[in-house]
Design brief:
six-stranded mixed sheet
Length: about 210
């Protein structure tokens, strides 16, 4: 038996557009983000999911609710699916962070597994709590499960699933309202789709996003 997980990143927010570190600040979807969530819901309408799980942060929950309405499933919230805690960086743009913490920001982009943000989290802690959420979700059976969460959570989990060190965190680019699919098989975990946004009409273009 395969267990399938649809890993979904929330739609766009104003802070995504402004290049601000969001972390655990509760920033809602902007107008485009709502449209993305609706397009995503239409794309997933015919999928075989049995459960929908979401981070409690409104940008993820709003995205999950759109999917739930389309496929007529309730949304279950797990607190450990929250985005990484960016600590004192939250609310600041990349340029603002660079002025105050230039060395730490450089390390974040070159050695992310070595960085703990001021008053925030490191990737090991994020990965551990995200894995705890994954284990709780798995207790509900093979699924398939739709898991609506955040950029750093998805990257940390993909590193774990694909047996990559957290130093490979930046090897993934996962746009807003993107879908990735991982399956647990008798041969272990495998990724069958990464960062798909065909439902948004831009299957090949991936804009680089600041504030990550």
């Amino acid at each position: 038996m395969k267990a399938r997980f649809y890993l979904v990143r929330h739609g766009e927010t104003a802070w995504n557009c402004e290049g601000r570190f969001q972390g655990q600040r509760d920033v809602p979807l902007n107008e485009r983000g709502i449209e993305q969530a609706e397009a995503l819901a239409r794309a997933l309408k015919g999928c075989d999911a049995k459960f929908i799980w979401s981070s409690p942060l409104s940008r993820a929950k709003m995205t999950a609710d759109k999917i739930g309405q389309a496929i007529r499933l309730p949304v279950y919230v797990d607190d450990d699916l929250k985005e990484i805690n960016h600590g004192l960086w939250e609310g600041h743009t990349m340029e603002e962070v660079k002025k105050t913490w230039p060395a730490l920001l450089e390390a974040w982009h070159s050695q992310p597994h070595m960085v703990k943000m001021p008053d925030g989290e490191d990737l090991a802690r994020l990965q551990a709590r995200a894995f705890a959420a994954y284990c709780r979700i798995s207790e509900h059976g093979e699924g398939p499960h739709i898991v609506v969460t955040h950029d750093a959570v998805m990257k940390a989990m993909l590193c774990l699933f694909l047996e990559m060190p957290l130093s490979g965190f930046w090897r993934f680019q996962l746009g807003n309202a993107s879908v990735s699919i991982v399956e647990r098989t008798e041969r272990g975990m495998r990724a069958t789709l990464l960062g798909d946004t065909c439902h948004l009409g831009d299957p090949y273009f991936r804009a680089e996003q600041k504030g990550l």
